Amino acid sequence: MVTDLKTAPRAARRWITGRPRATDAALGGGLTLFDVATVVHRAPEPATWGVALWGAQTVPLLWRRTHPRLALAAMTVLYAAFQATSPIAGKVPGPFLLMLGVYALAGHVRARVSLPGAVLCLVSALTADALTGHWRQPPSLGSLEPISATTFVFFLGLAWTLGYGRRRIEADANRLRDLNRRLAAEQERNARQAVVAERARIARDLHDVVAHHVSAIAVQARAAEDVLATGPLPDTAVVEGVGLIARSADTALVEMRRLLGLLSFRDQRLAPEPSLGHLGPLLDTATAAGCRVTSWVEPGAESAPSPGMRVSAYRIVQEALTNVVKHAGPVGVRVTVRGDASRLIVEVVNGPAAPGHQPVPGSGRGLVGMRERVAAFDGELTAGVCEGGGWRLYAVLRARARAPRAAEVAV
Q1: What is the model's pTM?
Q2: Confidence band of 141 (pLDDT split at 50, 70, 90)
Q3: Is the pLDDT score of 345 beyond 80?
Q4: Residue 409 reports pLDDT greater than 50
Q5: pLDDT category of residue 323 using cuts at 50, 70 and 90
Q6: Are 337 and 344 in contact (CB under 8 A)?
Q7: What are phi and psi of 331, to 5 degrees?
Q8: What are the backbone dihedrals phi and psi of residue 346, each rounded to the nearest 5 degrees, phi first?
Q9: Nearest partner of 350 among 284, 279, 290, judged by Cα
Q10: Which segment, 36-40, 139-143, 286-290, is predicted with the most confidence on average?
Q11: N or C: which end of the chain has fewer CB within 10 A?
């Protein structure tokens, strides 16, 4: 119930904001009915056309958003007409109705147009008062219809200032919303580019790993084919089968390179595939940047069942150390790699940022790339602030798909 009371004003504001025409109709119509009700039973009874002229002064407010200049002009003309004819004895219009028109003009039209319009309205109103002589009559105490020139200048100036301020606030709000939309679109585009770039790196690493083994299959199959073909008792069926293995390996290698053709390997010198045995240069680079690095790689981790898993673990450590240097500076870092036949665990923990270090702005692609690599092995990645104000990255890569949870099975 308390929550409903808190959200009710916000919901009402959204409802009103989403129906501007209905709001204008309620404002203009309501004020017209109110104005008519205040004069219809006066004594002596006013003429019908005088009541209509009095109430008509608020009718242009129906078009205060769509045609604010015409609305203010019509209100000014009706005000002057009422002043000139004085159809209702003792009834002199004040600046309140013109304030609404000036406020609407300043809130919906640029200042270089609304300010001259407000000044023209003020001059017209004062001229009408001067010609009819109303402004020379001092208002009575407690009157709600002040007609002095100073009062008109003050209230119409206040109305223009409020309308202009509202227009500036709305313009700033729209600009901020547009910037937020652009920023969200840019972040989404950067995230997509990060995914594409990291998948390209994964594909390149996959090529290095798979191409090596498929090439080895083809070489070994051809060697076996030669041995069987030149043996003392060559078996034609076996020779053809081994030859088929070699040709299939060649075909698989060609097709894989064709699928990964978006990566220009022709312009790259293929280096040995990175693995956990190559962590030394990464740690040396972080040490050269001022970090105090300690590492421990479990002996069984270097012989993880999947070469691709070892490459991904290497890339995760590489990206984690890069982030430490960029965001924390020269701090203490602990790198731990553990593993067995079923999974590989990478943990990188660093201390709080060094005093005076200015973090290098990042694009967020590194974390996206690490998530892509972990997801490729049905793993999990957690990264966040750890005890003491530092940062901890924990990644688990699995050699085989994990068993579905009970909830997943139920679904």
Answers
A1: 0.46
A2: very low
A3: yes
A4: no
A5: confident
A6: yes
A7: -130, 175
A8: -120, 130
A9: 290
A10: 286-290
A11: N
Residue 329 has pLDDT above 90, yes or no: no
Pick from 47-51, 201-205, 306-310: least confident = 201-205
Residue 350 has φ and ψ, to the nearest 5°, of: -130, 160
Q: How far apart are CA 54 and CA 79, in angstroms?
A: 8
Long-range pairs, 369-374, Cβ under 8 A, ≥24: 369/194, 369/195, 369/197, 369/198, 369/201, 369/315, 369/319, 370/315, 370/316, 370/319, 370/320, 370/395, 372/195, 372/198, 372/199, 372/202, 373/198, 373/202, 373/312, 373/315, 373/316, 373/397, 374/312, 374/316
The mean pLDDT value for 211-236 works out to: 66
Q: Cβ distance 330 to 353 under 8 Å?
A: no
Give me the torsion for CA of 33, 34, 35, 36, rounded to 10°: 50
On the question of pLDDT at 403 being above 60, the answer is no
Tokens of 37: 């009700």
From the list 343, 267, 288, the residue with the least C-alpha distance to 312 is 343
CA distances (Å), origin 214, targets 131, 245, 252, 262, 265: 102, 11, 8, 20, 17
